[in-house]
Give the backbone structure.
Amino acid sequence: MTKINENFLKLPKNYLFAEIGNRVEAYKKSNTKADILKLGIGDVTRPLPKSVVKEMQMACEEMLDINKFKGYGPYEGYEFLRKAISDDYAKRNTKVEINEIFVNDGAKADTANILELFNNNTKIAVCDPVYPVYVDSNALAGRTGEFNSSTGKWSKVVYMPCTKENNFNPELPKEKADLIYLCFPNNPTGSMISKKDLQKWVDYANENGCIILYDAAYEAYITENLPHSIYECNGAKTCAIEFKSFSKDAGFTGIRSGYTVIPNELKVEGHQLNQLWLRRQSTKYNGASYIIQRGAFARFSEEGRKEVKEIISYYQQNAKVIFNGLKDAGLEVYGAVNSPYIWLKTPNNMSSWEFFDFLLDKANVVGTPGSGFGPSGEGYFRLTSFGTKETTEKAVERIKKLI
Ligand code: PLP
């Protein structure tokens, strides 16, 4: 008889943002007039850059032309986009070769699927709190052991607490792990890492035979003199894979594009990981859409860069409004400077979900409970700056009146 993959049954019933969506829908049903302001899920509100849309329109037109029509594309992505990405690294004095870049349809799937490169006994270390995809994808693969609902932890996962005491930057793991997930600027805490501290991780990984999975999805939000890529550190090419997304800088959450870098020098047991990944992709993935890749290409044009800058400064302004507004109201707030996320301590020792209900009910504002990202997120709450200016200002005013 067919049997289910039991790992599914070990996961919480809903993915965090699906759970929030359900709760908001239930609230709306019994409060039909509520004017709900959503600062929960990290989805963008600015429209796509014009240059991106124009380029996609041209690519669509090509599809009508027998000489230009495109069918299946390369598994790794078209060279024109991979070259634009490689040149973008070069502009920041970082060397990433075209053949180290794998274009995808957004970073989420690759951050989850990459674990297929590693043996089933691979041990993972994650920041706590953490972007839930890293842990849930390992749980689905049966690599996380048993979930303890009273501690909120999986038995086989190494948790690296990120607290205000360590400035929301993890310390090197006390217990050895094979794969270390790092994300800077961090989702959810909005923290950033210095080059010196990132170098410590790279050195540690090289000395201990670990691989760092470095998620740079929010790299474009860095405003201070801090590393945009792990490859700015010496030796990162032998120990790190980097993920990047166009979702939050060029508004690609709906049209989908990003990329993964797997350096040529990165080997495990003598096997070149980017060759194995190519084998994996050619088996399970038929490449990202040509039209979308053309759109992503335009993101790197002069006009595209200008438009992306404008989008980012719009959200950065929102982040300031939230950060300053809540700080003035007496709340303890973090993040926002190099990040679109604001991480705040819940007032009056409320639990994260208590504060979620309180804010939804009393201010009709939706945020994300910190405990949804891991046990160290309990007592914290995440707001995003991806709303419109008007929604953001209105939400801050409502929260200020409540506190
Ligand atoms: N990595 C992090 C840390 C994220 O927060 C997100 C999306 O919210 C992603 C990756 C996925 O981005 P994409 O839209 O490219 O799949």
